[in-house]
From TrEMBL:
It comes from Tahibacter soli. Residues 128-150 are annotated as: Disordered. One of its GO terms (molecular function) is catalytic activity. This is HIT family protein. SUPFAM superfamilies: HIT-like. A motif (Histidine triad motif) lies at residues 104-108. GO terms for biological process: nucleotide metabolic process. Gene3D superfamilies: HIT-like.
């Protein structure tokens, strides 16, 4: 059974209701919003979220599935134009055992740059040579608390980042 994380109130629903200070919308569609991720492990990292409060991929309708990927592609194009990244990482967690922290569907879209230390992000990247450490050097979780603080940029910076990406969305 997939165990869901508990977060009450849901931070994404709070954002949609205008009650989240660190909230900036990049793109909108009938079924989804693309928003800046308040945790900027990579500058410009964002998420496509469903307008409906549903937890996982298993809860999505066909239309939502299609729109999520189309929205992810749109913002990926804008990220390439804005940051000229070395790669675009997408990932999505379902259940606490997969690393899901918010019980509201969100699909991560992340522009990857050389030398960034993802740290507490996806484990496959924590050991990946291109994640900013020398090959064979494991991620040291000792600095994760400080890392979590460091990547929390101000609401104003988040809004500026969102504006920049939005200006490069395909017409
Ligand atoms: Zn929600």
């Amino acid at each position: 059974m997939i165990e869901l994380p508990v977060r009450d109130p849901c931070d994404l629903c709070e954002g949609m209701a205008g009650r989240e200070e660190r909230w900036a919308i990049i793109d909108e569609s009938e079924h989804t919003l693309t928003v800046i991720n308040p945790w900027q492990f990579e500058v410009g990292q964002c998420c496509v979220i469903t307008r409906r409060h549903v937890a996982t991929l298993l809860d999505l309708s066909r239309e939502e599935c299609a729109t999520v990927l189309a929205s992810a592609k749109r913002v990926a194009e804008a990220l390439v134009k804005t940051y000229e990244p070395l790669g675009i990482l997408t990932f999505q967690n379902n259940g606490v055992y997969s690393g899901q922290e918010t019980p509201h569907f969100h699909f991560h879209v992340v522009p990857r740059q050389k030398g960034s230390d993802w740290g507490i992000g996806p484990p496959q990247l924590a050991t990946f040579d291109g994640a900013g450490r020398q090959r064979g050097t494991p991620h040291d979780p000792g600095g994760d608390v400080q890392r979590r603080e460091r990547v929390q940029v101000s609401a104003r910076q988040l809004a500026e980042t969102a504006n920049r990406i939005r200006s490069n969305l395909p017409k």
